Amino acid sequence: MSTHVQKPGWFTVNIFNRAVAWLTRRGISIWGSRVLAVRGRKSGTWRTTPVNLLTVDGRQYLVAPRGHVQWTHNMRAAGGGELRLGANVDTFTATEVADDDKPPLLRAYLKRWKAEVGAFFKGVGPNSSDEELRRIAPDHPIFEVTYTNAPAPTGTADARSTNDATAAGATTATKATNAVNDVNDVNDVKDLKN
User: Fold this and answer.
1) What's the CA gap between 26 and 65, in Å, rounded?
2) How far apart (Å, rounded) are the C-alpha atoms in residues 190 and 64?
3) Which residues lie closer than 8 Å to 43 by C-beta, 6 or more apart?
4) What Cα–Cα distance (Å) separates residue 52 from each residue in 29, 113, 167, 175, 188?
5) Measured between alpha carbons, how far is 104 from 100 in angstroms, rounded to an integer?
6) SS3 helix, strand, coil % of the chain, rounded to 5?
7) Which H/E stretch holds residue 96?
8) How many other CB atoms sit within 10 Å of the CB of residue 38?
9) Are residues 143 and 80 in contact, defined by beta-carbon separation less than 8 angstroms?
10) What tens digit of pLDDT does each residue of 56-74 get?
């Protein structure tokens, strides 16, 4: 397994990720953004970070453009987590995608978000050959998302599932979680640990 990791710079940590996480927690998705929550593999506490949710052929995926970062290690240990958009919280299980199956997913991801994350893919872009995409595949974990609390969303990357709780409004627990998340903006932007 590759150990490729590209740590975020100051601007990404202190400005960009904070802004995206803040908007996403308020229900505003930026090009499919969600706040990923996954339990720490050692601490067991919830760790959060903004992510781009990729939809390909009605299936949804989380791609790690920076490589084998902390959330990917935590995802392997936990086997799933939560994707949050405003008051909507979708629980899911995650299945890691094999390297040989990654090229079409990497191509779709780069078509949508190359301007944001292209620098992390070693010069490979959406128009690169399958061979080039296969070469970088081990450096970029991808997890297929299977929802456990609602049917899987269909349509664009901005589509999300709805259920009675969402339609009726956020629960008290969700409101409390969102309030805690507002206080803990720093947790949304630091490279996840444990």
Assistant:
1) 24
2) 15
3) 194
4) 9, 8, 24, 23, 14
5) 10
6) 40, 25, 35
7) strand 88-96
8) 26
9) no
10) 999 999 999 999 999 999 9
Look over the chain and give the mean of its residue pLDDT values, rounded to a whole number. 79
Give the model confidence (pLDDT) of 93-149 as tens digits.
Answer: 999 999 999 999 999 999 999 988 888 898 999 999 999 999 999 999 999 999 998
Map residue 194 onto helix, strand or coil: coil
Instruction: Quote the CA–CA distance of 109 and 125 in Å, as a whole number.
Output: 9
DSSP class of residue 152 equals P
**151-192 per-position pLDDT tens digit:** 545 444 444 433 333 333 333 333 333 333 343 333 433 433
Reduced to 3 states (helix: H, G, I; strand: E, B; else coil), residue 12 is helix
Six token digits for residue 45 = 């506490």
C-alpha atoms less than 13 angstroms from C-alpha of 136 in its C-beta half-sphere: 27
C-beta atoms surrounding 104 within 10 Å: 12
Domains of the chain: 10-184 (2.30.110.10)
Q: What is the torsion angle, in degrees rounded to the nearest 10, for the CA atoms of residue 43, residue 23, residue 50 and residue 63?
A: 150
